[in-house]
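Researcher: Please translate sequence to structure tokens.
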Amino acid sequence: MKIYKFLSLFFIAFIFLTFTSCRNNDEVDSSESNGKLQLKFENGFNNLGNIVLNQTVQTSSGGQKHQFSTLKYIISNISLIDENGNEFKYHENNPDKGAFIINQENAIAGIVYFNLDDIPKNNYKKIRFGLGISQKAYLLGQNGQAEFWDKAKKESLTWSWAAGYIFIKLEGKYGTNSTSTEFMNHTGNMGNVTANNTPDLYREVTLDLPTTARVSASTQPSVHILADLNQYLSGETALSLSTVNDMAMGSNQHLVNVTNNLMKMFKVDHVHND
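Model: Translation complete:
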């Protein structure tokens, strides 16, 4: 009987230790499978580097001088694409968790930083993100994005709830010989674009990474993205500011052209795997 009790206790202890070990291993495996990724956005002109608000002056391909006093835009729907073409979507169509505001006022040494948490361990070769807020996300309603809506409102990146978000806000001065005339170009959708029969200015951008971003629990890659604001007036469609469009807001043809130019301003300069 004593031997039976001893064996029973031994068996129970063995099961307990095995379960505890498995649970601990599961916890280690889980923590090892996720990591972080840092994104760094640097806004500049292609031949002048970092933009200093109210100071840096660029001359467009059409000979027009311009400078920015305000430079803001929204990034959302970030996806990471691995070596096999598999895609990890970071809080897709969830602005509260997956949308960010790039505001040049907040740049540190010319760079705006933000961190993505809980990224699956993997080797990533491409990044995709949206410029603006998708219709699918917007049409979830205000309750589905109240936190980000409040952030955007504080940054003056909203029209009204019925109209939605300002995707890109560019303000400053322009002129031929000097920057003396004020301009404001605010791009963005106007509510439900299908119902309102207006252009959808949300755009998605896919960029190759020059170096593989190796995410793990011990490695947090940093992806340095350059945004060349020379594309604003000197991009695919050469644009000039005038009294016709220097106070444009919404989604008219000038702002469609601005959007199509600016979606091509991004490139990944380098990746740090630290």
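Researcher: Any highlights?
Model: Confidence is low (pLDDT under 50) at residues 4-31.
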